[in-house]
Amino acid sequence: MTTGTQEHTPEPTLVVLDMAGTTVADGGLVEHAFARAAGRLGIEPGSPEHTEQLAHVRATMGESKITVFRALFGDEQKAQTANKAFEEAYGTLVDGGRIAPVPGARETIETLQEAGRTVVLTTGFARVTQDAILDALGWRDLVGLTLCPADVGGRGRPYPDLVLGALLRTGAADDVRRVAVAGDTSYDMRSGRSAGAGLVAGVLTGAHDAGTLRAAGATHILDSVAELPYVLGLMGGASQGADR
């Protein structure tokens, strides 16, 4: 674990956590689901077009998926078709038992809540996919609020809307600096910084590496979300993360 040098910020009372790659390990299902969505539009796996589009999907992990497909296809109907196919494929893979909690994620969420912090889970997926993930993990009642882009007007990351939506809906902080954000992508970092969150932690269990997360504005780099309670001073001792 490494922590950034920054001026003192108020203690976080609201914690906004990403799902896939941060609290949920999906084993690369995004890429599998994308392949199915691309196939729906006649894009053959292994073709130059498929390779180029897959690279874009990897680079934009964390962004709202419909936004990604709009950028890829430049046509709203094609984007909607691809997004629907993607969500259906991802949901089928989730139902097939292809996901699991990141080790220590559930315990982290419970520790935060027991310490009086409000926790909100967010995603760039559609609500139907988010709900499928929550059901597969038995997390429906784990937190009081979960948000997807459609819940905050349709804009996902890197916009601040998911973070600010969590703040407005819960009323759990009286200052944006009392919000902590954790995610595995540069888009999570940019969203947190744009919202004015006092702590923006990049975790190394998902899409992007430490350098990419730092460049996007991470104030802390964690081996996993399981280190977050240590960073917030809710558990004694030091975390086991290696300095990076």
UniProtKB/TrEMBL annotation:
Q: What are this entry's molecular-function GO terms?
A: phosphoglycolate phosphatase activity
Q: Which Gene3D superfamilies match?
A: HAD superfamily/HAD-like (3.40.50.1000)
What keywords were assigned to this record? Hydrolase
What domain of life is recorded for the organism? Bacteria
**GO terms for CC?**
cytosol
SUPFAM superfamilies hit by this protein: HAD-like
* GO BP annotations listed: DNA repair
- Matching InterPro entries, A to Z? HAD-like_hydrolase_sf, HAD-like_sf, HAD_sf, PhnX-like
**One Pfam family here:** Hydrolase
Q: What is this protein called?
A: Phosphonatase-like hydrolase
Lineage, uppermost ranks: Bacteria, Bacillati, Actinomycetota, Actinomycetes, Kitasatosporales
